[in-house]
Amino acid sequence: MSSLIEGRTGKWEVVIGLETHAQIIAKSKLFSGAATAFGAEPNTQVSPIDAAFPGMLPVINRHCVEQAVKTGLGLDAEINRESVFARKNYFYPDLPAGYQISQYELPIVGRGKLTLDMPDGSTREVGITRLHLEQDAGKSLHDQHPTQTYVDLNRAGIGLMEIVSEPDLRSAEEAGIYVRKLRSILRYLGTCDGNMEEGSLRCDCNVSVRRLGEPLGTRCEIKNLNSVRFVMQAIEVEARRQIELIEAGGAVEQQTRLFDSARGETRPMRSKEHAHDYRYFPDPDLLPLVLDEAWIEALRAQLPELPDAKKARFVAEYGLRPEDTDVLVAERATAEYFERVARSNGKSRDAKAAAYWVIGDLFGALNKQGRGIEEAPITPEQLGALLDLIADGTISGRIAKDVFAEMIETGIDAAAIVEKKGLRQMSDTGAIEAAVDAALAAHPAQVAQYHANPKVLGFFVGQVMKATGGKANPALVNELLKRKLVQSS
Amino acid sequence: MSRLTELTIAEARTGLGAKQFSARELAEAYIAAMERARPLNAYITETPEIALDMAAASDARIAKGETRPLDGIPIAVKDLFCTKGVLTTAASHILDGFHPPYESAVTEKLWQAGAVMLGKTNLDEFAMGSSTTTSYHKPTENPWRKPGDNRPLVPGGSSGGSAAAVASHAALGATGTDTGGSIRQPASFCGIVGLKPTYGRCSRWGVVAYASSLDHPGPIARNVRDAAILLGAMAGHDPRDSTSAALPVPDFEKALTGNVRGLRIGLPKEYRADGMPAEIEALWQQGAQWLREAGAEPVEVSLPMTKYALAAYYIIAPAEASSNLARYDGVKYGLRVAGDSLDEMYELTRAEGFGAEVKRRVLIGTYVLSAGYYDAYYLKAQKVRALIARDFAAAFENVDCLLTPTAPSAAFAIGEKQNDPIAMYLNDVFTVPANLVGLPALSVPAGLSADGLPLGLQIVGRAFNEEMVLRVGDVLERAAQFTHRPSFIAGER
Question: Looking at residue B95, what DSSP letter applies?
Fold first, then answer.
């Protein structure tokens, strides 16, 4: 997909690589037993290990290792049988030890890939360079005191997976799709909740520009973007900045930058004299992490069906269009909901209709209520039962919309609503025929027009439906009207 | 009961069991000795109330017949071990007022075994030194002096406070830590026994870190049997230390069979370094002769990489230290010197909080890990370390243990090598290789120098074979019959 940026002097290609920090779903921290719940009172979830008290030692949390391996498997990546924790040294008050335990030369997960689902239904593969485990830092609170900074260490030591992509992305849009897809996979795996507002998923974007066919340009890293929208905006803004700089005769300097969403600009984070030399070296407090082959295979066997596989299956099994499928498989809960609408209570329903109802009506209603699919007011079985009423001719598709609206409001079953309100479709040919005859008799002028303008059929359908309170079987109405109009005109 | 402070741990254990005296009486005798020993400055913090409480608990258990292995044994703790609620300084200004909310794994085990805490002993700041002169709390003096010379001598280091306390009978035993010789060299300088166990044998959890891959907690005692008894209580797997070995703890005392018949004892020829004093060389040969007479077979072995060990050590240890000491930043605990900015607070706090030797090692360590120098220094040193390990592995294919001198000299005067760091670092030349490889090593007092100061011999064994090291050390100790006493004894005469 070509998405070049038009500069003053020609077209430019943007080259993007992402480093995504995904907070691991785990009850305790990466190297201590302290809790990880979000939103606790400051400094209440801190062990002496997290606060780097003298003599305290890290012990790896087995569950976090399992989560990283699962994620690696989900990204179709190499799992390294031996990996090494290293110390990344720098001073900052929210980094209590003066170093972050991370992985450097030997990460737990090596090369993998992620498939982007493009809006036109095509796909594009992006390389994953590596995934490594590391500790999160605490939080510096600058707004609690006029002259001093407070430190909250609740987050310090929580396990993160840093997932690094190859510089394979070529537009802000692709970067957005990448982040959404990664988030989707993490949520399927249950290894990260993907909650960007709470900071569970954060992105650093490496952006450079080049004229087509030229070697890679100098990159800048934009740190700590906490929404897909900001990722896309920041890339857009940074690419423009670099193009304008080069076109004005300047050169891009390799820098770490921050995105100011209010001003819509990026700016340098620290000056050169503060550039860090992290002095990475293997952490002598931790032995190399050695993974057992059988253990990895057991994890592989437990993996859920992931979005790509689900998408392929939905297309093959239900005959859905790939571009319709993306939205169904993005969230595991949506996909499961859809499948239960399509198949439940021993019935196999029209899958396209099921997809249409879920994507269209259900999503619309949920959006209006500001709810997620997990909090949907009706069960997929209830929606399936509504589809059954349409399929067996009990109600028309139009009446079904009204019934659905009422179901969403009240949570009552479709059949009960149809009974209570007498919405059962009129399929009695005699009664419909009487209504048709009455309508034709009442509008002779329109009858006369039919030959020249067959569209008056729609007018008569409307008249008949009005007369029958919308309950007449639309197919029968159409059929009778056509026959009689041909006869009369 | 008189002369309680003359007893060994084994004898005190027997006396307590036979109710010849109480744990309280033993504790009181040592509390008095600790007070008399104040001129040595062996202790940073004395904890007599804790000692009496612990002794009372021991007496209660003994009375009920529930005696534990170390019940009532008064010991000193190097002030590098965190002790719950008790000031822990690492002999540094930067830990001012630090009272840990936890107890180190090793001291916890000792108290569980019934040992009685007398106090916290002095050391080189953050265990960086071979003389106990870099302490923020002033140097410790060796209880030994040269006959006819009244100049105070260093007790060695870094566990110099523990060694001086044990040698002067101001503690019945003590904990130490050994990163490059810090248990064995002070034991040698003070005429007592020091054991550096295998890396992973004693948990490092709760021990203020100097160089994590080289730090070994271990016992200091007045004889080999006491060291074996203490080690038995200190050792054991600790899941809180990822480098702790999941191995059972043998009964180390049982290893003291007195029989070394048929054992092959390696004498590394490279240790016959240029400039080794003749009296050290002579003592070494004497040691080999004693073992030969006991039925062992001394043989020459080669450890060709020996000459690089000290250089590798003085890269790896500072590298790890520079990172381990980054946490002392004035933010969370200990000293803070306020500044106008964050950077200034860091600078002022660390400038005031750390002494010269610590600063020197933090700077060296930062340098060898920095971009562009890592490969040339740190990585190269790690390669040397691997080669040294290979040397030892090859040697141990032919011998059961090694015999070497512990240190290249006897104790020197306080201030003597203060302005010559290299001369100071050379103290560790015989002890450092065992740290780089993590092997168990024991120093046993074997004789006196021409100046009348104690000299030790070192026995190095295979990994996790402390039993062999203790067995040979015990035989050496019996042969050497080292009964000389320091000029200063704090215990009852």
Answer: G
Token pair belonging to A300: 């592989």
Domain parsing of chain A, residue ranges: 5-299, 305-421, 429-488
Q: Give catalytic residue positions of B.
A: 78, 158, 182
**End-to-end C-alpha distance for chain B, whole angstroms:** 13
The 10s digit of each residue's pLDDT in A398-419 is 889 999 999 999 999 999 999 8
List the domain range (segments joined by +) for residue B32: 1-493
State how far residue B374 is from chain A, nearest Cα, in angstroms: 8
| pLDDT at residue number A480 | 87
Which CATH number goes with the domain that contains B79?
Answer: 3.90.1300.10
SS3 call for A195 = coil
Structure tokens at A272: 């050169």
Residues in chain A within 8 Å Cβ distance of B101:
48, 53
Tell me the one-letter amino acid at A282: P
pLDDT tens, residue by residue, B246-282: 999 999 999 999 999 999 999 999 998 767 889 999 9
Note whether ipTM > 0.90 here: yes
Q: The tokens 């107890």 sit on which residue?
A: B103
b/e burial code for range B423-455 (CB count within 10 A of at least 16 → b): ebbbbbbbbbbbbbbbbbbbbbbbbbbebebbb
Nearest to B173 by CA among B11, B45, B286: B11
Of A98, A279, A285, the CB nearest to B370: A279
CATH class entry, domain A429-488: mainly alpha
Residue A1: per-residue pLDDT: 46
Size of interface A-B (CB pairs under 8 A): 96
Average pLDDT of chain B is: 96
**How many domains, in total, are found in chain B?**
1
B327–A52: do the CB atoms touch at under 8 Å? yes
What values do phi and psi take at A254, rounded to 5? -65, 125
**Chain position carrying tokens 């059949």:** A415
Cβ(B102)–Cβ(A57) under 8 Å? no
- Tell me the DSSP string of A284-318: TTS--EE--HHHHHHHHHHPPPPHHHHHHHHHHHH
Assess whether pLDDT exceeds 90 at residue B144. yes
Nearest CA in chain B to A33: B240
Q: What is the pLDDT of residue B8?
A: 97
Q: For chain A, state the CA radius of gyration.
A: 30
pLDDT tens profile B295-325:
999 999 999 999 999 999 999 999 999 999 9
Q: Is the pLDDT of residue B1 over 70?
A: no
Q: How far, in Å, CA of B240 to CA of A57, rounded?
A: 7
For residue B378, the distance in angstroms to the closest alpha carbon of chain A comes to 9
